[in-house]
Amino acid sequence: MSDPTRPGGSPPEPPRSRGPGRGPASEVVASFLVNGEAVRALVPATRTLLEFLRDELGLTGTKHGCDLGDCGACTVLVDGVPRLACLTLVAELEGAAVTTVEGLAADGRLSPIQDALDRHGAAQCGYCTPGIAVNLTALLAEEPHPDDAAIREVLGSNICRCTGYTRILDAAREVAGGGQ
Questions:
Q1: What are the residues facing 32 on neighbouring strands?
Q2: Taking the domains of the chain in order of start, what are their residue ranges?
């Protein structure tokens, strides 16, 4: 088919490559820390942190829940702030420090919130527990003695279908110094 807008009616030329550094990248290099360890990776530009942690680093504590940012099972800390790994691209992490649930423990010992969740029987199936532990860690770092309203607000970002939250609240209260 000829193109009447081109001389000689020839078809248009195919688009040319924009060359290096132009247009969207299909792969990116990102350098950041994961649980204190330096990581440098060449990944697809669309690679999520959740996929990278689980598939590339074998850190399976960060759970794959909804892929929509609704359940909180994939919560990690990025520079000390809770982020949903299913919605965070590796490309966004240049120079950042990522802490997963595995990184909360130190010297082979559970963190205070992990220990309290365990002792209070706050996990039944355990799928939501890593995200809850990470979110509560961030809360307690910001506010060492939060009240129930603050704890409940933070837990509002994590869906738990098994426990009913009572034991989770008890564990958080204990670490905050306000309860059993």
A1: 39
A2: 28-103, 112-176
Strand 97-99, strand 75-78: pairing: antiparallel
pLDDT digits (tens, 9 = 90+) for 53-109: 999 999 999 999 999 999 999 999 999 999 999 999 999 999 999 999 999 999 999
List phi, psi (to 5°) of 27: -135, 150
Cα 127 to chain centroid distance, Å, stands at 14
Q: What is the CATH number of domain 112-176?
A: 1.10.150.120
Phi-psi region of 119 (alpha: psi -120 to 50; beta: other; left: phi over 0): alpha
Scanning 1-92, the segments in alpha helix (DSSP H) are: 49-51
From the CA atom positions of the chain, what is the Rg in Å? 22
| Cα 40 to Cα 45: distance, rounded to the nearest angstrom | 14
Give yes or no for a contact between 27 and 42, defined as CB atoms under 8 angstroms apart.
yes
Residue 56 CB contacts under 8 Å (≥ 6 apart), including other chains: 41, 43
The DSSP call for residue 106 is B
Per-residue CA distances from 31 to 94, 98, 154 (Å) = 5, 11, 29
Contact 92, 45 (CB under 8 A): no
Which residue bears the tokens 């910001």?
Answer: 142
Q: What's the CATH code, domain 28-103? A: 3.10.20.30
pTM confidence score: 0.84
